[in-house]
Write a structure and sequence with these properties.
By secondary structure, the chain is mainly α. 72% of the residues lie in helices and 0% in strands. The chain is built from 6 helices and no strands. It starts with a helix and ends with a helix. 12% of the residues are buried.
Amino acid sequence: MKKNIIFLAIVTLGLTSSLLYATSGKKVFETYCWGCHHQTAVAFGPPFEEIASKRSAEEIKAMITDPASVSKIFGYKRNAMPSFQLSDDNLTVITEYILSYKPESNITTESNSTLEVNKTIIEETNSNVASLLKELK
């Protein structure tokens, strides 16, 4: 019984900290980013959905802390983003918040449709080969 209570307390603490973590990322977004970025729509800057689909966590963190240098590395002709001096915790939560908008991969859908087409082609080919083999016998 005591083990169950401890386990439940640990799970509850983990869920609570996860929710606080996500809320903190949203709070950092609302404080520093919302004026230029929106989660899924284009504003002055690109939406988080676009950023998350193109950039790693390290690239996002670097762009937040030193956008002028990172913009040059990425080959952008100009940079309008100011640098932000965030605590490590705030930098981590905003990065994770941005990455939470990464779109689901279409690879599965494309793979499934490609597999269906290939399956049909293989089945037709096998049927044609089987017919041809019968004719040759």
